[in-house]
Write a structure and sequence with these properties.
heterodimer; A: 216 residues; Aconitase, domain 4; globular; B: 470 residues; alpha/beta; Aconitase, domain 3; 2 domains; 5-stranded parallel sheet; 15 helices
C-alpha cells in the first residue's frame, strides 16, 4: 500500500457538502478496467454536460486551482455507496488528500487502503480554509504532526497559518507506514484456523452445507 | 464479579473476535460473504496475488447490479454482459455458489440472502455494497465494505475493524395507518442527518419496532446507511424465527433448538449502555417524501418545498438548498402535493419484497396510473409469489411494466434509467444527483406512496385516496 507522510501541493476549495460517491464517479463508468485510469470520471457529471462538454463551473476546473492534489470540501464527503472506484477516481486524477469536517465511513476506510488521506477538520476551519484558498494556493499536509499549513496563497496572505486535523490513530499509522492488511493478517493464520474449528463445533449452523437446494 | 452488561452489538462483536492487536484493531471472523458483478476489482486483486478464495462454502455470488430486468436471458449491452459473465467465471473458477442470471432464486443480494436462510441471527455478514446493513434486521452484524476489504475477506475470511460506538434509537408508540418502515426511516434520517449515526453501530428498539414485520425491519436497517450508520440491527424475536422457519439454509430440527437458544441470548442486557440514545415517537411519523438530493432532505407529504432564504445566516445551507432545488426543478414554498411526476419505480433492496408489492398493489387495485412506471421484484422468487397472488395483473392493469428482478432503476448501471430532467417517485434509497440516471430527479418514498403518486400523477398523501375496497 502507498504510504503518506507530508504533501505540499495546490489545494482546491471544492466547497460542496454531501459529495456522495455517485457524484464522485457515476455508476456507468464502473465497468471500466482500472488500467485505463479513472481520473477522467472524477465528479464527471458536475464537470461535463450531457454532450461531454466541460461546464467549467466547479473550482476543480478553474485555472487558479490547476494541478490540485488536495481537495477541501464541506460536511459528509464520500457518503453513499461502498464503491472504492470513488477513491480510484480521486487518486487517478491526482488527489492524495481530502480535507472535510466529516466523511462517509466506508469512503474513509477505502481511502486509507489506497493511500489517500481523509483529513477531518472542524466546520469552522473548513470554512476558513475554503476562504483562504478561494483564489488558489498551496497547503502542506503533515500526517506525522496532524497539521495543515498554508504554504502560500495567491493573495499572499496568511502564509504559515496552521490548522490541526484528526484521523483515527490506527489509520494514521497505516498511512504513514503503507502497511498491507493482507500481509499482516497472514501472520495470524493459526489463530484464524483455531477460531474456525471452534465455531464449526460450537455453532455448526453458521456453515451452510454445500450442495443444498437453492429454492424455497 | 459479574460481567458488565452488554448490548446486542457488543455480543455480536465479542463473538467474532479472533485476535486484538495492540493498537486496538480487531480481527473478526466473517460468516457470510456475498459478492456481485461489481466485485470485479477485488477478484483482480486476488489474481494479482495468485491467491485462492479461503472459504468458498461461506462465499455466495449474486448477479443483481448489472442484470437487465427485461428481455432475459439476452443482454443487449456487451459491456454489461461482460460484467455478468465475469462473475460467473469467478464463481466457477473459485468454486462458490452463484445465484446467476438463470437461477430460479436469483435476485437482489439483500433480498436473496434472507430468503435463502443464508442470513441468520448472530452472523457477521459482509458484501461490497453499502446496503449490506439490511441483514442486521435479523440481529446480525452486517456491513458494506470496499473492494480492498472484499479482497481481504476473499483471501482470509476475516476483516480488521475498530469497534464502532453504540447508538440506540427507540421508537415508541406505533406507526399509523399507511405509515411504513420507509416513512420511519426517512423520518429518522431527516431528524439526525445523513451523518447522524456516523461511526456508530445502530440498534433499533421500542414498541413500534417490535410491531414491524421482517420486511419492515429489513427496510429500516437498509436505509440506516443513509443516516451514516455502517450497520444497524434489531434483536431477533419470534417474528424473526417465524420468518426463518423452513428457509433452505436455515437450521432445522435439533440444530434449530440449539440455535434459537443462542439467538434469544443475543438481545441486549437490560442495563447495557449506549454511547448515544435517541427516542422517536412512532405515532408522530407521517408519510414522508424527499424533496432534495440527499435522503436527509425529507419532509411529511403535507409539507412545502423549503425556502433557501429560510436558512438565514447559514450561507452554506442556503447554497445547498438552492442548489438542490435547482437540480430538482422545484420552487421554494410549493406544497409537496402539487409536485407533478413523470414516472414511478417500485423496486430495489429497500422496498421490493412481497409485503412492499402487496402494499403498492392494494393502492393500485382497480386504478390506472397516470404516468408510466416499472415494477421490479426484489427476487425471482418474490416475482413468482407475487404472480401466484395476482399482483402482477394489478400492476399491468394499472398500466405499469412488470419486470424481472435486479437492482434495476435504483442504481443506474443496468439499462433501467430515468431520463434527464424526468421526475420519478421511487421506492429506492438514494435521491443523489444522477443516481437513477444522468439528470434524473428522484423523490424517495414508500411503495404505497409511490402507488398513490402513480394514480394521481403527483406526489400525494396515500391516506387521502378514497378506499376502493370493501
Amino acid at each position: 500500500m502507498q504510504s503518506f507522510t507530508t504533501l505540499t501541493a495546490p489545494a482546491c476549495p471544492l466547497g460542496l457538502a454531501n459529495v456522495d460517491t455517485d457524484q464522485l464517479i457515476p455508476a456507468r463508468f464502473m465497468k471500466r478496467s482500472r488500467a485505463q485510469g479513472y481520473g477522467g470520471f472524477l465528479l464527471h457529471d458536475l464537470r461535463f454536460d450531457e454532450e461531454g462538454r466541460p461546464r467549467a463551473t466547479i473550482p476543480l476546473d478553474d485555472a487558479r486551482h490547476a494541478g490540485a492534489r488536495i481537495l477541501i470540501a464541506r460536511r459528509n464527503f464520500g457518503t453513499g455507496s461502498s464503491r472504492e472506484a470513488a477513491v480510484y477516481a480521486l487518486w487517478d486524477y491526482g488527489i492524495a488528500c481530502v480535507i472535510a469536517p466529516s466523511f462517509g465511513d466506508i469512503f474513509a476506510s477505502n481511502a486509507v487502503k489506497n493511500g489517500l488521506l481523509p483529513a477531518q477538520v472542524s466546520e469552522a476551519d473548513a470554512e476558513t480554509l475554503l476562504g483562504l484558498l478561494a483564489d488558489g494556493g498551496n497547503l502542506t499536509v503533515d500526517l506525522e504532526a496532524l497539521s495543515v499549513t498554508v504554504a502560500g496563497t495567491n493573495t499572499a496572505e496568511n502564509h504559515g497559518q496552521r490548522f490541526s486535523f484528526m484521523i483515527d490513530p490506527v489509520r494514521r499509522l497505516q498511512l504513514l507506514n503503507g502497511w498491507d492488511d493482507i500481509d499482516l493478517t497472514l501472520r495470524h493464520t493459526a489463530e484464524i484456523a483455531d477460531y474456525r474449528a471452534n465455531r464449526a463445533t460450537s455453532q455448526p449452523w453458521t456453515f451452510p452445507e454445500p450442495g443444498m437446494p437453492s429454492q424455497a | 464479579m459479574s460481567a458488565a452488561p452488554r448490548t446486542l452489538f457488543d455480543k455480536l462483536w465479542d463473538e467474532h473476535v479472533i485476535t486484538v492487536r495492540e493498537d486496538g484493531e480487531t480481527l473478526l471472523w466473517v460468516d457470510r460473504h456475498f459478492v456481485h458483478e461489481g466485485s470485479h476489482h477485488a477478484f483482480r486483486k486476488l489474481d494479482e496475488r495468485g491467491a485462492a478464495v479461503a472459504e468458498p462454502g461461506l462465499t455466495f455470488g449474486v448477479a443483481d447490479h448489472y442484470v437487465p430486468t427485461r428481455g432475459r436471458p439476452m443482454i443487449a449491452d456487451p459491456e454489461v454482459a461482460g460484467m455478468v459473465e465475469r462473475l460467473s467465471a469467478n464463481a466457477a473458477r473459485h468454486d462458490f455458489r452463484l445465484f446467476g442470471l438463470d437461477d430460479p432464486a436469483q435476485g437482489i443480494v439483500h433480498v436473496v440472502g434472507p430468503e435463502q436462510g443464508l442470513t441468520l441471527p448472530g452472523l457477521l455478514i459482509v458484501c461490497g455494497d453499502s446496503h449490506t446493513s439490511t441483514h442486521g434486521a435479523f440481529g446480525a452484524y452486517a456491513f458494506g465494505i470496499g473492494a480492498s476489504e472484499v479482497a481481504h475477506v476473499l483471501m482470509t475470511q476475516t476483516l480488521w475493524q475498530r469497534k464502532p460506538k453504540r447508538m440506540r434509537i427507540t421508537v415508541s408508540g406505533r406507526l399509523g395507518p399507511h405509515v411504513s418502515a420507509k416513512d420511519l426511516a426517512l423520518h429518522v434520517i431527516a431528524s439526525i442527518g445523513t451523518n447522524g449515526a456516523q461511526g456508530h453501530a445502530l440498534e433499533y428498539g421500542g414498541t413500534a419496532i417490535s410491531a414491524l414485520s421482517m420486511e419492515g425491519r429489513l427496510t429500516l436497517c437498509n436505509m440506516s446507511i443513509e443516516a451514516g450508520a455502517r450497520c444497524a440491527m434489531v434483536a431477533p424475536d419470534e417474528t424473526t424465527f417465524a420468518w426463518l422457519a423452513g428457509r433452505p439454509h436455515a437450521p432445522s430440527g435439533a440444530a434449530l433448538a440449539e440455535a434459537r437458544a443462542r439467538w434469544l441470548a443475543l438481545a441486549g442486557d437490560p442495563d447495557a449502555e449506549f454511547d448515544r440514545d435517541i427516542g422517536i415517537d412512532g405515532n408522530a411519523v407521517a408519510p414522508t417524501v424527499t424533496w432534495g438530493t440527499s435522503p436527509e432532505d425529507a419532509l411529511p407529504i403535507t409539507g412545502r418545498v423549503p425556502d433557501p432564504a429560510a436558512a438565514s445566516g447559514d450561507a452554506a445551507r442556503e447554497a445547498y438548498v438552492a442548489g438542490a432545488l435547482d437540480y430538482m426543478g422545484l420552487a421554494p414554498g410549493m406544497p409537496l402535493e402539487e409536485v407533478a411526476i413523470d414516472r414511478i419505480f417500485i423496486g430495489s433492496c429497500t422496498n421490493a419484497r412481497l409485503e412492499d408489492l402487496r402494499s403498492a398493489a392494494s393502492v393500485l387495485r382497480g386504478r390506472k396510473a397516470l404516468v408510466p412506471g416499472l415494477v421490479s421484484p426484489g427476487s425471482s422468487l418474490v416475482k413468482r409469489q407475487a404472480e401466484a397472488e395476482g399482483l402482477d395483473s394489478i400492476f399491468i392493469a394499472a398500466g405499469l411494466t412488470w419486470a424481472d428482478s435486479g437492482c434495476s432503476m435504483c442504481v443506474g448501471m443496468n439499462g433501467d434509467l430515468v431520463a434527464s430532467g424526468e421526475r420519478c417517485a421511487s421506492t429506492t434509497n438514494r435521491n443523489f444527483r444522477g443516481r437513477q440516471g444522468l439528470g434524473a430527479r428522484t423523490h424517495l418514498m414508500s411503495p404505497a406512496m409511490v402507488a398513490a403518486a402513480a394514480v394521481t400523477g403527483r406526489l400525494s398523501d396515500v391516506r387521502d385516496l378514497p378506499s376502493l375496497e370493501g
